[in-house]
Amino acid sequence: MSNQSEKNKQHKPVTLNSLQEMKRNGEKIVCLTVYDAGFAAILDNAGVDVFLVGDSLGMVIQGHDTTLPVTVNDMVYHTASVRRGSPHAFIMTDMPFMSYPTVEQALKNAGRVMKKGGAQMVKLEGGGAFVDRVEQLVNHAVPVCAHLGLMPQSVHQTGGYRVQGRDDQAAQTIIDDALAMQKAGAGMLLLECVPAELGKKVTQMLDIPVIGIGAGPDCDAQVLVLQDILGISQGHHPKFHRNFLDGAENIEAAVKSYVQAVRSGEYPAAEHCY
Length: 274
Ligand code: KIV
Hints:
Elements: H1 4-10, H2 16-25, E1 29-33, H3 37-46, E2 50-53, H4 57-60, H5 72-85, E3 90-94, H6 103-117, E4 121-125, H7 131-139, E5 144-149, H8 155-158, H9 168-184, E6 188-192, H10 196-205, E7 210-213, E8 221-224, H11 226-229, H12 251-264
Parallel strand pairs: 1-2, 1-8, 2-3, 3-4, 4-5, 5-6, 6-7, 7-8
Helix pairs in contact: 3-5, 3-12, 5-6, 6-7, 9-10
Bound molecules: 3-methyl-2-oxobutanoic acid.
3-methyl-2-oxobutanoic acid binds at residues 33, 52, 54-56, 94, 190, 192, 213, 223, 225.
């Protein structure tokens, strides 16, 4: 770890502009969740483009059944830890459940995540009803990624972790929401657990990069949960799950294998898609 900051400086900085350029050039973007400094340094060495400090930390770090108990303080704490491990990374941090019910609260809490945590972008779950929050955050220089499809913060409303957008009407709602979010100024979109055909359609329709998780191979970017790619998460594994530590020499090799699989288009394969 002694030469870590020197190594970090050698990387070309990832910015919203460079990610948009990657989309235009058809280069795959690699995103992975991370919650602490030690793993952040490993992701940095492995060449991950976007570090997602996800509220999935409520489940994989804190041991809750859902992401709902996670607080803004938790997100600030983990984002600052990741920032210390990788001073030059492009960090996107989740706005946790009920931290953006109004424009005022969204601005206050996103401001804390950026000022105290060091994030460059916040991610929030929701479609058309959240247009005003996205517009105002962007007006205040807070880059936003909109999360559509399966939204884990809505698990009690949707009745479980289910594939979304399967029928024409549900697919059209996701398309309309995606267009509304882009128009509101979102800089990226994340699509979780939707049929691969819908992932492809949304990715082609939008100018902004689309990150997929269980959304097929045609998204501009892929994201997975770090504990899932290392095979240390408990419970049911969704179809898009793949353990990259299997057959790898160590954790850094596993993360590099994930990076390489996404860049080459080898992951996700047909067996990982809906
Ligand atoms: O919180 C998280 O880790 C996420 C991913 C599952 C995309 O939002």
